Amino acid sequence: MTKRRDRGSRAEAEAGCREHFVDAPLYDYEYRHRRADLNFYRQLARNRMEFAAGPILDLACGSGRLLLPLVRDGHQVIGIDRAPEMLAAAARRIRRLSASRRARCTLVRADLRAFATLGPATLAICAFHSVQHLHTDEDFLRFLACARTSLRQGGWLAFDVLPADPAWLGRDPERRWGRTTFRHPSTKQRFVYTSNHVYDPAARLLHMRLYYQPVDDEGRPRGEERTVRLCHRQFAPDEIRRLLGLASFRLVEVFGGFDGRPLAGAAGSDDEHVYVAVAV
Ligand SMILES: C[S@@+](CC[C@H](N)C(=O)[O-])C[C@H]1O[C@@H](n2cnc3c(N)ncnc32)[C@H](O)[C@@H]1O
User: Does the Cβ of 199 fall within 6 Å of ligand 1?
Assistant: First the structure.
């Protein structure tokens, strides 16, 4: 049983930015139905490129879930990530593209907080809650500084975060939630998946644990359960607006979901918060 006191160390938080990205085929399988963000960012890239041409930066590109569709749409894309397993999966997909599409892809292994100047780009996207792996204001400002120096003046930065629902944050951390059974896409081993989490309000860090118990075809446990840590900083819109301002960005739009609905805040029916800022 995972105890509250086991969570919250710096090492735990750091592990929470890496462990979920070690098994790229499993990551791709778990998020295979996630589409709304892709549609949103593809449309943004289309709109942006009507004003100015230039490469798109896919910051924390992972296994290429967004990078590949952007390349197929005709854009030149530079993907940055630090997880070798995710980059290897992206590279495998890029190898299957036609030569002309391959020529429009670049992968760079780097940290979001310290990547060398790229571009100059007209659009930088940091999709699927990846900025929530930047656990302190300093980390987020370092990331913004790198993004800013790689963007032209007037270039856009777009990213999303998953807002915290207080009821969900306060769930019993000793219980297991969200039980599902699935087969691993590569090994075909059957697993029971469960999860739980602890929220550290002082650090604004959500420490999640994802549990993968191997089972046989009758559902009986077989072998050791694997625990994967995942840690997300919680951001409020005002904080993001302030930090963007400190890093020479101006927030131009915040949506309460990828369907473009307005931000409702704590009282309303927000899904994910989607931010679009301009480099000033
Ligand atoms: C939720 S995944 C998103 C991947 C991809 N953008 C997508 O939408 O599927 C988060 C990604 O952030 C990367 N990541 C986390 N912290 C990072 C850091 N400090 N520097 C670079 N990449 C980081 C992980 O390796 C992982 O690929």
Answer: no
